[in-house]
Amino acid sequence: MADNKAKRGGADRALIALTEKYEVAYWSKKFKVTPAKLKYAVKKVGRSAKKVEAYIKLQKHRASDKSRIALSEAYEVRYWSKKFKITPAKLKAAVAAAGHSSRKVEAYLAARKAAKKKAAKKTTKKTTKKAAKRKSAA
User: How far apart are the first and last CA of the chain?
Assistant: First the structure.
């Protein structure tokens, strides 16, 4: 049923009418979401603008939390330690050095791994050169 344009009171402003294109456009722009996400939110929590706004904020918060490492939560430490294949202590040290962003921690760990490989190559070259000198001297 179409929105009654004669009713302009607070009760009408507090509800989202998905049947009206202009309302979908308005609320989508206001909440900074696509019309599809707005429609999904309305179906999930109802037509109340306040409830929809709270739901959308919660969803955005959850999405941003997925890429952050919370060391205060034991299950997160276990998850990220397993994902990066390091001990929890090394994870905590990496987070302290790079920050809580999972991308930054991943880049930090990759850089550390590359530095270790480079150092190992240098020591291997030195030891092989020393061994070759010993053999030639003997």
Answer: 99
In sequence order, which ranges of the chain are alpha helices (DSSP H)? 10-13, 21-31, 35-45, 49-65, 74-84, 88-98, 102-137
pLDDT tens-place string over residues 12-63: 778 999 999 999 999 999 999 999 999 999 999 999 999 999 999 888 766 6
C-alpha 14: how far from its chain's center? 32
What interhelical angle do 21-31 and 49-65 show, nearest 10?
Answer: 40
Residue 56: how many CB atoms within 10 A of its CB?
Answer: 21
- Cα–Cα dist 17/40, whole Å: 13
CB 22 within 8 A of CB 28: no
- Token pair, residue 41, equals 């939110």
The C-alpha atoms of residue 16 and residue 85 are separated, in whole angstroms, by 47
